[in-house]
């Protein structure tokens, strides 16, 4: 059976392979970011401890990374741990750090196989030594890879990222390296953690919450937002493909009119 995006109203009837065939490879988001929310609720609904939700969430990370890499999405940022997450109970923080280490230990060989380059944003220096060591190792061993960039946001906060950029710019101005009048969006972006990443095109948030939660505040300026009711541990490749198809069905005007865009 052949489908086109306009013919298909109900993706629920299609298999992942059929959905994959509908994705336009020329119009993939250059940079996709995901707020992986709902691990705790997933566990609570099953009478399990919250950490069981994080563990299942880690398996979903693996599935989504592989699917994005196979679609040739250029860059994927996952909100794995926010600056605010340090306020969670110490046991949960410690489990999340152990899962991060476990993930990198298990996935490094797959990243190498799939030509994925590993990167991070956020205050990685705040993380425990073992996690930091694996982060450095994964970065070093995938530095030459040319496929998808997998970027984990770790101890990351958007406001902090902007303040940090402002501090660096102020220092450069004081040192005479930048004239205040020369500062523009391009130069400012060059001081953010995401300076080597492509423009952010699509942000997905799971679990029905419709907030940005201090994630990529500067970068979301023109991004498309996609919210799904699915809890992160229930999120599947099918959900990912539906989000990308929804994105591809939108008209992005960047402040212009439809007529100016010629459609
Ligand atoms: C939000 O769910 C999720 C997090 C704070 C952490 C995300 C972590 C993972 C997906 C697992 C590990 C990831 C890697 C990359 C190894 P929540 O706990 O806020 O859920 P709730 O809102 O239902 O309580």
Counting helices, strands and paired strands, the structural category is: alpha/beta
CATH architecture of the domain at 28-157 and 199-248: 3-Layer(aba) Sandwich
- Total number of beta strands: 6
CATH superfamily of the domain at 28-157 and 199-248: Decaprenyl diphosphate synthase-like
**Order of strands across the main sheet:** 3-4-2-1-5-6
Largest sheet: 6 strands, parallel
Report a brief summary of the structure.
By secondary structure, the chain is α/β, with parallel strands linked by helices.
Molecular structure report:
This protein is an alpha/beta fold. The protein has a domain at 28-157 and 199-248: 3-Layer(aba) Sandwich (Undecaprenyl pyrophosphate synthetase), CATH 3.40.1180.10. The chain is 41% helix and 13% strand. The protein contains eight helices and six strands. Strands 3-4-2-1-5-6 form a six-stranded parallel beta sheet, with helices on both faces. Strand 3 (117-121), helix 5 (129-142) and strand 4 (149-156) form a beta-alpha-beta unit. The longest helix is centred in the middle third of the chain and has 24 residues, at 90-113. The radius of gyration is 19 Å and the shape is globular. The protein starts with 15 loop residues before the first helix and ends in a 15-residue tail after the last helix. The mean pLDDT is 95. Farnesyl diphosphate (FPP) is lined by residues 36-41, 54, 57-58, 61, 78, 80, 85, 96, 99-100, 103, 152, 232.
């Amino acid at each position: 059976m052949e489908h086109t995006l306009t013919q298909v109203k109900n993706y629920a009837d299609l298999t992942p392979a059929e959905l994959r065939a509908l994705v336009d490879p020329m119009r993939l988001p250059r940079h996709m970011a995901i707020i992986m929310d709902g691990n705790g609720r997933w566990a609570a609904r099953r009478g399990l401890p919250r950490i069981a939700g994080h563990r299942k969430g880690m398996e979903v990370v693996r599935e989504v990374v592989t699917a994005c890499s196979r679609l040739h999405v250029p860059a994927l940022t996952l909100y794995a741990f926010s600056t605010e997450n340090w306020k969670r109970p110490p046991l949960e923080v410690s489990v999340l750090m152990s899962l991060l280490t476990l993930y990198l230990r298990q996935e490094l060989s797959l990243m190498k196989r799939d030509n994925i380059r590993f990167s991070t944003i956020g205050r990685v220096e705040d993380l425990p030594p073992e996690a930091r060591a694996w982060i450095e190792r994964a970065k070093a061993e995938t530095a030459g890879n040319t496929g998808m960039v997998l970027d984990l946001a770790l101890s990351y906060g958007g406001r902090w990222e902007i303040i940090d950029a402002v501090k660096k710019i102020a220092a450069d101005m004081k040192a005479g390296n930048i004239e205040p009048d020369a500062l523009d969006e391009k130069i400012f972006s060059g001081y953010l953690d995401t300076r080597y990443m492509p423009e952010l095109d699509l942000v997905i948030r799971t679990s029905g919450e419709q907030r940005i939660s201090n994630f990529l505040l500067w970068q979301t300026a023109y991004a498309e937002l996609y919210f799904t009711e699915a809890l992160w541990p229930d999120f599947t490749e099918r959900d990912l493909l539906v989000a990308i198809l929804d994105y591809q069905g939108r008209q992005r005007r960047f402040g212009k009119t439809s007529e100016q865009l010629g459609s």
